[in-house]
Amino acid sequence: MPASSTPSLPQQHIQWEENGEQRSARWRSEAGMPPPKRVVIADDRTNADVAYRLACEGTALLWRGDFQNARQLLQALARRADHKGRTGKKAKPAKAPSSTTEAFHLHRQAQSQRARTLAMLLIPFDEGYTIPLRRAPDVKLACNEAYGRYEEPFIASMRELLGLIGAHEWRRTGVEIPALGARIHPHYGVFSPVRGEYVQMVADAPLPAGVNLAFDIGVGTGVLSAVLAKRGIKRVVATDQDQRALSCARENLALLGLDQQVELREADLFPEGRAPLVVCNPPWVPARPSSPIEYAVYDPDSRMLRGFLDGLAAHLTPGGEGWLILSDLAEHLGLRPREQLLEWIASAGLKVVDRIDVRPVHPRASDATDPLHTARAAEVTSLWRLAAV
């Protein structure tokens, strides 16, 4: 799934009182969370139960103690947010949702509340992305990759920092892609191709006769462009609106030696012209993202999906095909019925040539404790081969 473009966030500041003085610093949140209005100082003496109560009330804790102790406190907050508490016993279960759609919305609501609570533990950053805390790690490279060049001191959440560190490790080690016989290295904020079944479908689906040009709509990490190029398509034009995605794809294609074969363009959906093959893997769930990073997963009002379908016929050469890679998870969640998708395909002047289906193999599909297990267990990912009528 591609990383969709989101507007840059305006610079904000956070205020707090410390040692009898009013202080202020730049606030950073890649999740788009506003700066907390209430901030207290916390350190190694701060009790986890007190910290959790304050966080739930919307009071942030600016950490001045040992960095590793802050990590432990965040873990303690996460346990409490997951209703485990000190005793390890789960809270009394709530009433079961009446439908998978309600289960989805309740799950998203719980995720959002959990994220807000855990984001209340704050870490200071000084010159050159140094953290002025005991036993703090060197995070300069991870921060440079996510934030870009250092500009000024700022405050960010501990949870976001750990996400940056995790993303740096993903980028360093990469994700093995069997269809390429190589690794793809996702950047921070760009969706990682961990769902390998859809990549393999693009590697295996029959190509239209004589195809020597393809469009990849929403390039993301560049994985599908790389697969198409590896299949012998002489030229691939790949688009995305997100600068992180374009940078990520450029780096991956260079590492694979395919940068001369794939041309990257900043565009909303289609490049100019027509091609005998146009491939798109839009975000699969028609719901509102709760943070900019989630635009790779959630497609509000199916905007990207409908935009692809509506514009596809005008960008296909005679006899060409459009490949739509789409999970039916939204159907099982009651968010978008199959009939609606078929109606959109027909109204765009398209017909279904074939559909290739595969069952997902990711761990959540077999996790009975997942709140959305019923929908995930029934999920099928499809490659829809579409042509102009």
UniProtKB/TrEMBL annotation:
Q: Which residues form the Methyltransferase small domain?
A: 214-287
User: Polar residues compositional bias: what residue ranges?
Assistant: 1-14
Q: Report whether Disulfide bond shows up as a keyword of the record.
A: no
Asked if the Swiss-Prot or TrEMBL record annotates the protein with the keyword Methyltransferase, the reply is yes
Q: A biological process (GO) annotation for this entry?
A: methylation
PANTHER family attached to this UniProt entry? HEMK METHYLTRANSFERASE, MTRF1L RELEASE FACTOR GLUTAMINE METHYLTRANSFERASE
Instruction: Name the chain's protein.
Output: Methyltransferase
* Species in which this protein is naturally found: Duganella guangzhouensis
